């Protein structure tokens, strides 16, 4: 099968059809940014971007993504020039142990794209600022952090959005 990850085509031979996207990324392509936190789609540590939308890669079969563009945290930014969300996390100390950070960053990138498209969240009311602290917290609620670095993630995301 063929996967397009971070702009590069990868041919995977002999991949079990039951292999999750997370396992294919980590075990076959050696892209270890996405983490296996719960294996049930509840923690968000495995978040990647699939055609620009954030998804829990532990819940998706790799074989179903042959025509998709997959972006992992390794595909954001470049050496010496981090993605704005990565820079925001660095500037605002938006991480502690770092285990959830790649998923948080991918989720924030996807979330900012949703905001740019004007998509409301469950917390949005008419006239709400789509990047208020409450909105950012609601939109990032699918990504858990055991270290509770949340207070620093909000300004990191706001900085990445240019606010």
From TrEMBL:
Residues 1-76 form the 2Fe-2S ferredoxin-type domain. SUPFAM superfamilies: 2Fe-2S ferredoxin-like, CO dehydrogenase ISP C-domain like. Keywords: 2Fe-2S, Iron, Iron-sulfur, Metal-binding, Oxidoreductase. Gene3D superfamilies: 3.10.20.30, [2Fe-2S]-binding domain (1.10.150.120). GO terms for molecular function: 2 iron, 2 sulfur cluster binding; metal ion binding; oxidoreductase activity, acting on the aldehyde or oxo group of donors. Pfam families: Fer2, Fer2_2. The keyword Transit peptide does not apply. Pathway: Alkaloid degradation; nicotine degradation. This is 2Fe-2S ferredoxin-type domain-containing protein. It comes from Actinoplanes cyaneus.
């Amino acid at each position: 099968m063929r996967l397009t990850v971070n702009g590069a085509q990868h041919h995977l031979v002999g991949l079990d059809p039951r292999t999750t996207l997370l396992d294919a990324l980590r075990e076959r392509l050696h892209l270890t940014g996405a983490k296996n936190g719960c294996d049930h789609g509840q923690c968000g540590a495995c978040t990647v971007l699939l055609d620009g939308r954030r998804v829990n890669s532990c819940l998706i079969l790799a074989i179903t993504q042959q025509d998709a563009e997959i972006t992992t945290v390794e595909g954001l930014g470049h050496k010496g020039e981090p993605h704005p969300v990565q820079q925001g996390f660095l500037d605002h100390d938006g991480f502690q142990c770092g285990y959830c950070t790649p998923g948080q960053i991918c989720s924030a990138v996807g979330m900012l794209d949703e905001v740019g498209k004007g998509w409301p969240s469950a917390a949005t009311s008419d006239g709400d600022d789509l990047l208020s602290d409450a909105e950012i917290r609601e939109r990032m609620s699918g990504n858990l952090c055991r270290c509770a670095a949340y207070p620093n993630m909000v300004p990191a995301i706001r900085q990445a959005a240019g606010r």
